[in-house]
């Protein structure tokens, strides 16, 4: 059938249809005309979106329709022809530039006076961008759904408590372990406040202030707290609150994880009790051995038995070491249980340092211990414990530096504080170890330190003693060059004379 004959047959087309064609042509990306059975595409104008036909073509399906959608298009056409009703479909097309696009296509049958289809008039709009957006959205939703499933699996199988607070302090998520601890279902607990979930007022208040802090500073908070478990009774928990930050960089929620550390705490307590008990039990026999050795040494000296005298002196020194070690353990357990007492008294630090110097001179010959000249400096502190800090730092300087090297001990008054320094020329300390040095039982794991005896409690005790005096303790060190340990104490005016 040619254009002319088709146009002749079109005589029955009304003025209304003509206007409809004009409107559709103006508002669509593509307009097309099809033969009554769709076997021939009479014409296609697309303004460059699809390839224009130019002349009527028969192979339009393979030219324009994406292979996957061809059958679907054929089915829709067959349906429209059999019902003589509008053809309407969204499907993929092969675009002019060779890539795949999407169109929303509609075609109406043009009927002659007897109701026979003369031709189909179609229009289509390019919906590639919308389809792409829908596809992206679907992918994002699938990914989010998958993430959610993943988090649910992870959080539902951990014994740790995992939860999220909204900024109004209400729970927006609680994992099964937390629900079990509360003895509640998600329906009962989600959207509820801390108080409504059974927290005591002080506890709820504390967490609310912490949520405010995390929200305003974006800082992570860590703490320890006891809470009554629904079935296990009172337990001790270690918790971390972390800010949940949105795309605009604002905190939109606070996520928390909590771990039951009751057993760790109990084990620690058992260990402390054990150390404390053993140290106490060892102290009594040690004290008697020390006095026996002293008496024996005196008698050896009186009877001019030099060999026995020397041996007993050495035994005495070793016993002194043991005593210091045991006292160290006792101090740790006292610190842990809060039983350590600071007996404040006014004294001149210069006098104490002089005593320390004499003590050290009589016990250490391997190093040059240089005590820099110091001025009278009064402090209000526990004399015995400050002496212990001096001894610990000087003993460490000797322990961790080669024989023959020098150790400098000095102090200076800066801003109403006395700043003591103990400097050595020893092995120094790696940067990674510096922050943990003052922790209980922390020892540097280096081949050089492996053979040096110790328990990692000296610096912990020093730091606790100094902190309890309102002072600070720190170290500056260069591996291979040496370390300087500093501590400060507030100074007080010298007493009236
Ligand atoms: P200990 O000496 O019994 O191991 P401390 O608490 O006194 O315990 O010291 C902790 C760790 O710090 C030591 O194991 C050692 O590795 C390191 N350390 C302490 N003082 C020095 C120092 N002057 N030079 C180098 N390392 C040191």
Summarize the structure.
This protein is an alpha+beta fold and 497 residues long. Helix content is 43%, strand content 25%.
Description of the structure:
The chain is an alpha+beta fold. It contains 14 helices and 17 strands. It has a 5-stranded antiparallel sheet with strand order 2-1-5-4-3. It has a 5-stranded antiparallel sheet with strand order 7-6-10-9-8, with helices on both faces. The protein has a 5-stranded mixed sheet with strand order 12-14-15-17-16. A hairpin with a 5-residue loop joins strand 9 (233-245) and strand 10. Helix 10 (306-336) packs across helix 14 (458-468), helix 11 packs across helix 12 (383-399) and helix 12 packs antiparallel against helix 14. It is elongated. Residues 1-12 have low confidence and may be disordered. Residues 396-397, 400, 424, 426-427, 429, 437, 442-444, 449, 454-460, 483 line the site of adenosine-5'-diphosphate.
What attributes characterize this protein structure?
497 residues; alpha+beta; five-stranded antiparallel sheet; 17 strands; binds adenosine-5'-diphosphate
What proportion of the residues is helical, as a percent range?
40-55%
**Please, what is the average pLDDT?**
90
Please describe the biggest sheet, giving its number of strands, its sense, and whether it closes into a barrel: 5 strands, antiparallel
Low-pLDDT residue spans: 1-12
N→C terminal distance: 130 Å
Helical/strand content category: alpha+beta
> Which cofactors or ions or other ligands sit in this model?
adenosine-5'-diphosphate
Number of strands: 17
Fraction of residues in β-strands = 25-35%
Number of helices: 14
Sequence of strands across the biggest β-sheet: 2-1-5-4-3
Cα radius of gyration in angstroms? 44 Å
